[in-house]
Amino acid sequence: MRNTHPVLEAIDRHRKDLTALADRVWDTPELLYGEFASCATHTEMLRAKGFRVTENVTGIPTAVMGEAGDGGPVIAILGEYDALPGLSQVAGIAEPKPVVEGGNGHGCGHNLLGAASLLAACALKDWLAATGTPGRVRYYGCPAEEGGAAKAFMVRDGAFAGVDAAITWHPDGMTRVDDPESLANTRMDFLFTGRASHAAATPHLGRSALDAVELMSVGVNYLREHMVNGARIHYAYMDAGGSAPNVVQARARVRYSIRALELSDMLALVERVKDVARGAALMTGTAVDFQVISAVSNNLVNEVMDRAMQQVLEDLGGVPFDAADRAYAEAIRATLSPTDLEAPWRAVAQEPAAAPLCDWIVPLRPGGDKMIGSTDVSDVTWAVPTTEVLVACHAIGTPGHSWQLTAQGKSAAAHKGMTHAASAMALLAERLWTDTELLAAAQAEHARRLARTPYSSPLPADLAPPLVPRPV
Q1: 162 CB neighbour count, 10 Å cutoff
Q2: Phi and psi of 255, rounded to 5°?
Q3: Residues of 297-336 as b/e, b for ≥16 C-beta within 10 angstroms?
Q4: Which of 28, 119, 365, 453 registers the highest number of CB atoms within 10 A of its CB?
């Protein structure tokens, strides 16, 4: 299909600029809500390409929106550009070697994610202008997907008002429409406050906040037997109270991530974890405060959108990798475990094969092992009909959030994958504008699902996103 369609011709016109943008974002990996350089790069590109730009979307300094076109339905293309801590890695090699020891790295491919989404938006802007089709394309540059729930805040605060449908993607080892399941998730801190004292001379005067955190861990571990299927609880010590063992620790903070397949189950589990924390405080004579950091919903599926995206993928075909791409992928695969190499095949219910890269399309809803995480895209799915496509950008078996994924983030295969993703998203958006029955069917399905289960934001109404200061 490539080069035989005006949308794909427009993709090719903008591809070089957006590939360079993806590499620039890879070079400046920034963590949640601190993506100032990455957001500025996207904002500059939006202006250079002639979009009407809105900065500081819903009060988030690293969120940006660009719009083009007039009248008609509004189609949103979602992008991201946040990185991860501790995944600094030299690009293009097949051994662990950080650029900066302990530094950040694009270990989830969000440098590609934002660039491909903006590439799709640029092509759609050209197509709308050339055809005179009534419609508007909006590119949303969304920060802080990795634990910051920016899209959930943006949905709660009205950023997607007036949008008729949304399309997004994510780099992957295989090309397919994403499965609809995701985990609703709350991240919250439990701050225990006790009383310091000399641990040898006057231990009876102390009340240990560290003891409370440890007893909370015990209680939550006993709770695991009595959770709904699919629920998950994880924790990390944010502040253990100090390093002097001869002082009773007066303060300690632990962060919990509490997940379940349904929002209602997750919220109920949060209350049970809070009860465990209250019990730990009671046992230790300490006080406990709760603070929600972020929260996201589970995914609301839209079968109409997903089937339409599957058809687009099948018409487009697989990513056109070459021999050099496969050779580098083989070098990466040599660093992976047998479990790593098998996992993606099990996820799509296929027998493992020796293919280093996926140049085919996985069938819709293939079954297989569910490897379910959480994403703030889910809150957008409750706001508007949404579909997400996964596109092969790295060696099959590459674990997410790994040095191997960071290493492949500027490769020729990654660039081909992001261009393919942009093509798929742009072609689906074109269909939504030209096939009014398709868009109406997607919106009708969305309305039916909302009527059965109305949306309620998992975020407290007064909770602000955990913004960080702009660097000097």
Answers
A1: 12
A2: -110, 130
A3: bbbbbbebbbbbbbebbeebebbebeeebbebbebbbebb
A4: 119
pLDDT of residue 188: 97
Token pair for 5: 């369609």
Q: Which two tokens stand for residue 263?
A: 């929002």
Give the type of residue at 117.
S
The pTM assigned to this predicted structure is 0.94
pLDDT tens column, 418-447:
999 999 999 999 999 999 999 999 999 999
- Backbone phi, then psi, for 46, in 5-degree steps? -60, -45
Would you state the structure tokens that stand for residue 271, as one six-digit string? 């209350």
Contact status, residue 421 vs residue 116, Cβ threshold 8 Å: yes
